[in-house]
Every structure is written in C-alpha cells, then in structure tokens.
C-alpha cells in the first residue's frame, strides 16, 4: 500500500484545508514542499501541467483539487466522515460555495495593499514582483473574476452573519453536528488565510462565536507528517502502477469515449490544460492516463464539477 503524499507549501489556504482533512482522519502522510509560484517542474511532471496547490499523490495516482481529495481521503478511511451520513448534499454544496464565493472574497481582502505589505515585509522585492505576475496569470482566462475590494468589504458582514447564524442554530459544536466535516474545513481555510496578518485578522476576530468555532476546527491538527523530496516522490510514481479504475460505469454525457485523447482543465482559474488518454469518467471523477519521462505512467484524477473536457 502506497503512502499518502501531499505536494504543498505552508501559506497556501487550500493546502491548509488538505492538511486539516488529513489531521481529521488521523492519517500519516509525506510532505513535499513545492514553490508558491511557477515554474514547478517537479509538480507538473506528475500532473501534466496542472499548477494549483495542493496536489495529492498515492503511488502513481495523482489527485487534483481538494474537492476530489476529500473523496479520496474518505475512501482511504471512512471514519470519521468528511461527508456526514444523510447530509452529504448540503455539506458538499456548502463546501463548494466556500471554495468559490467565500474564497474569492478572502483573496480580495488578503490582497489589499496594507495586508500584502505586511505579508511581504521580509521578502525581497524581486519575489513580490514575480508573485504578483504569477497570480495575475493564475486568474487569467478563467471564469473567476477578482472581486473589487470595496465590494468584498461590503459583502463580508453578510457572509459572517450567515455563518454565525448557522453555528448558533445548529445542533453541536460544528456546522452539521458534533464533529467537523468537509463544509467546516472549506470555510475554515478561508478564515485561516485572513488570520495571517493584523490587517485582516479582525475580519474573523470581531465575531467571537466564529473565532471560537475556527479554533476548534484548526485544533484537529495536521496528522502525522514527515518530509519527502520531490525527486523521491517522482521515483515512487515511476516505480508504481496506477490503481485499478473504479468499478463505476463509464459515463460521459458529451460523448467522449474511453481511450480518447483529450484535455481536462479547470474552468474558474488555473486553467492550464492537461493532455492525456481519458480512461475513466464517473459521476464525480475524471481520470487521464499520461506518461512522463520522470514520473512514468500516471493516472491524473480530476473532479467533474468545475472542470471541462476538450478533444485534442
């Protein structure tokens, strides 16, 4: 059985979501540090061009997007559950809202000049310029648009009031009971991002009930991790065989066939296409087979929701 490997960097909010999910599952995992900006040659050798952070690797299987990672971790260890029984739809839907709407508001607030000045106070100016260009490229060509700062500030009290109301009306300490779930982690990573500087921390701290809830979610920790080099992660992929395909029937409503050469890309941001052979299309998941001289034969997994398939 292959180890769980997370390719990430410390300040990535979506990486924090993945780390918390593994802590919740009490999993042991290997940590591969990746650059926060392009180029990321070791990562893209595995993914075929997908550049968003984080990426989960298990042997020669590579999982893109935390929405799909959550389902893979649930398959790895089904208790405690990220998708609570009887509330799977509402938990997944709230998580998707948090990862898009709430996250884009958090990005706008975090990227305001005063906040960024504090975040990059000890960073060389050259890197700040590279970072700015990289993030502009990340959001170029997709459906997601930067929310103007004034609009984000105007919306924020509404978003926090609704979250506060849900916490007050719910049964238990978390959004859907007495244990956190995918919705808690998806909202928490956005607020964790805001807690990064004194400029944006009050946007969370001014709501005591939310601050207390966030402390409990973050308190699950990150599980048991140990460092792994990028080269060793590539070697693991190269020496492994991809796992058997899911038993679920192939289902592709746009007429793509198993074995067809296609590209898969995100539709919102980070839309770099990944080319390969479509080997599986399920209700939630798409899988491409691709070969790389450094990674060998790998299966790259994507969620169906939020991604598109195009013929090559």
Automatic annotation (TrEMBL):
One Gene Ontology term of the molecular function aspect: transferase activity
What UniProt keywords apply to this chain's record, in alphabetical order?
Transferase
Family annotation (Pfam families): GST_C_2 (PF13410), GST_N_3 (PF13417)
Q: Which InterPro entries match?
A: Glutathione-S-Trfase_C_sf, Glutathione_S-Trfase_N, Thioredoxin-like_sf
Q: Which Gene3D superfamilies match?
A: 1.20.1050.10, 3.40.30.110
Q: Do you know which PROSITE patterns this protein is assigned to? A: GST_NTER
Domain named GST N-terminal: which ranges?
2-81
Q: Which residues form a coiled coil?
A: none
By what name is this protein known?
Glutathione S-transferase family protein
